[in-house]
Design goal:
By secondary structure, this protein is of the alpha+beta class. It has 6 helices and 18 strands. It folds into 2 domains: 3-117 and 292-302, Diaminopimelate Epimerase, Chain A, domain 1 (Roll), CATH 3.10.310.10; 131-282, Diaminopimelate Epimerase, Chain A, domain 1. The longest helix is centred in the first third of the chain and has 13 residues, at 77-89.
């Protein structure tokens, strides 16, 4: 007898179908082993596929496991926001709840719903504080690995790893034309990284107006996650917004929202909102937010 697993697909960080980042969410996935989850994620061929499992504690609304086509990831933003929307719209959160905690591999991830709790208009996740590694010295090498020149890099802005739970390599470029022009030479990139982890590359250009609070980006990860280009990367923009503030690329404030545009070049325009709150010792609290829209529902049959 075949086994049937119900799933829904939503587009995340957009307010319209066929924009943003597609996400598949499978309900009642407790009967699936790791290898089968990975095989399903390869079959779906989306940036991430989420499997809902019973939480390990009553403090959590649900337990999430997230897989790219190549591997499981401990945390990701568009699966968190999209799954929160699915849980709310399918009555899987307590009635009227605007706050909940999701269980992910990095630990608890708080979410906040705006609008009607049964069909929220916007969802925020509370991110961890951003951490950064030492700058990479070979700027020319990284430019060449993107088929660019050193002149395309943003002057006086370091190439660094950054993370709020899922590390990325951040490469600042001079303008959005350079971001769009970049193409990845994977062998050259891997030679540059050496023994360092194979992290996805987040290419970005800040708005020339530092008061605008905006950035334009692309996420390339064929070498690390099996995703040639990601339309919207919620796990990247918390560290990105922090980077912009730390390096004077936006005008800092005690509270501010930075908007990151992504996916435009690949025809899936996305807008990711990052809310920064300056606390004690200038520590930055981070929330990442966006909207989601339903696309399709289906049933997967397994032998």
């Amino acid at each position: 007898m075949s086994r049937a697993y119900r799933f829904v697909q939503v587009d995340v960080f957009t307010d319209r179908v066929f924009g943003g980042n597609p996400l598949a969410v499978f309900f009642d996935a407790a009967g699936l082993d790791d290898a089968t989850m990975q095989a399903i994620a390869r079959e779906m061929n989306l940036s991430e596929t989420v499997f809902l499992l019973p939480p390990t504690s009553t403090e959590y609304a649900a337990k999430l496991r997230m897989f790219t086509p190549a591997r499981e990831v401990p945390f990701a933003g568009h699966p968190t926001v999209g799954t929160a929307w699915v849980l709310a719209t399918h009555g899987l959160l307590p009635p009227g709840a605007r706050e909940a905690i999701l269980e992910e591999q990095i630990g608890p991830v708080p979410i906040h719903l705006e609008g009607d709790p049964r069909r929220p208009s916007f969802i925020w996740l509370t991110d961890r504080a951003a951490t950064f590694g030492a700058p990479f010295a070979d700027r020319v090498g990284f430019a060449r690995a993107l088929n660019l020149t050193e002149a395309d890099l943003l002057p006086d802005a370091p190439i660094v790893t950054g993370s709020t739970g899922n590390p990325k390599l951040y490469i600042p470029l001079r303008d959005r034309a350079a971001v769009d022009r970049a193409t990845l030479d994977i062998p050259q990139l891997l030679a540059l990284l050496g023994a360092a982890p194979r992290l996805g590359l987040y290419l970005f250009a800040p708005d020339p107006d530092r008061h605008a609070g905006r950035a334009y980006g692309r996420m390339l990860a064929p070498h690390s996650a099996g995703v040639p280009e990601d339309p919207a990367t919620g796990s990247a923009v918390g560290a990105l917004a922090t980077y912009l503030v730390l390096h004077g690329l936006v005008v800092p404030a005690s509270q501010q929202t930075i908007i990151c545009e992504q996916g435009t070049r690949m025809g899936r325009q996305s807008f990711l909102h990052v809310r920064l709150t300056r606390g004690d010792a200038d520590a930055l609290g981070i929330e990442v937010g966006g909207s989601a829209v339903p696309v399709l529902e289906g049933v997967l049959h397994l032998p």
